[in-house]
Amino acid sequence: MPSRPMGGLAAASATTLLLIAVAFAQPADSPPEEAPRDPPPAGLADRMKDAALISQGEKLWQDQCTHCHGAKAYPGKAPKLRPRAYTPDFVWDRVHNGFRAMPPWKEVYSPDEIAAVVAYVLSDDFFP
Questions:
Q1: CATH number among 2.60.40.10, 1.10.760.10, 1.10.3210.10, 3.10.20.30, domain 46-121
Q2: What does the pLDDT look like over 37-96, one tens digit per residue?
Q3: List 51, 78, 101, 119, catalytic entry
């Protein structure tokens, strides 16, 4: 009677381990866990017409955001922005917490700097 080669036994063990790993994996239809999202600061909407804040936001936009969004939010690698459809809280959330391929900027910019970017994006000075 021929003996079974060791390679076959090793392959069977590897297959068993793979099946066990798959059985305990997160189901495919479960959404990935999302990090908690920081809320916008109180009074954000009241600051949107501050000329100094808008000017600061324009500088930050030119220094950083144009790399992906382009000079006026289009054309760039990122999707075209539609600021007339946005609220200050919405823009804050996307800039501060990130969204899809956009990284969160909360570790780079202060809340006041992010508020400045929000003010600029929602200002009459910015329209793609």
A1: 1.10.760.10
A2: 899 999 999 999 999 999 999 999 999 998 888 876 666 678 888 899 999 999 999 999
A3: 101
